[in-house]
Amino acid sequence: MILTRGMEGCLYIFPLAAWKRVEEQLEQLPLTDASSRAFVRFFYSGASKSRLDAQSRVSVPQPLRTFADLGTDVVVAGAPGRLELWNPARWDAAILAVQQDPPHPELLANFIA
């Protein structure tokens, strides 16, 4: 599995097959675009390969723990193709933000039918 920086201050955990698909998409970004280069740097520079230990735990490297402000309590959230690791306070703030400003109805049209 691959751990890397995620959006909104969380961490992403990708299975290797999903990570390969992400890499293929990142490779399609234009090298001539500064924001694309910056995002690729952000995403790749934090990437770390890991595996579950004998007790099904994953070790998170300190730079990633610092980035996500992870302490002893961590929220593990499922997402399409990945898991997300969150600091509980950041998680609560992210959920509250969605509740206060939900996505536009047209984005949800295929899910609510």
Automatic annotation (TrEMBL):
GO molecular-function terms, A-Z: DNA-binding transcription factor activity; transcription cis-regulatory region binding
Subcellular location: Cytoplasm, Nucleoid
UniProt key word Transcription: yes
Top-level taxon: Bacteria
GO BP annotation list: negative regulation of DNA-templated transcription initiation
Gene3D superfamilies per UniProt: Transcriptional regulator MraZ domain
SUPFAM superfamilies reported for this sequence: AbrB/MazE/MraZ-like
Coiled coil: none
Keyword DNA-binding found: yes
InterPro entries given in the database record: MraZ (IPR003444), MraZ_C (IPR035644), MraZ_dom (IPR020603), MraZ_N (IPR035642), MraZ_sf (IPR038619), SpoVT-AbrB_dom (IPR007159), SpoVT-AbrB_sf (IPR037914)
Protein family membership: Belongs to the MraZ family.
Subunit text: Forms oligomers.
Protein name: Transcriptional regulator MraZ
Organism of origin: Deinococcus aquiradiocola
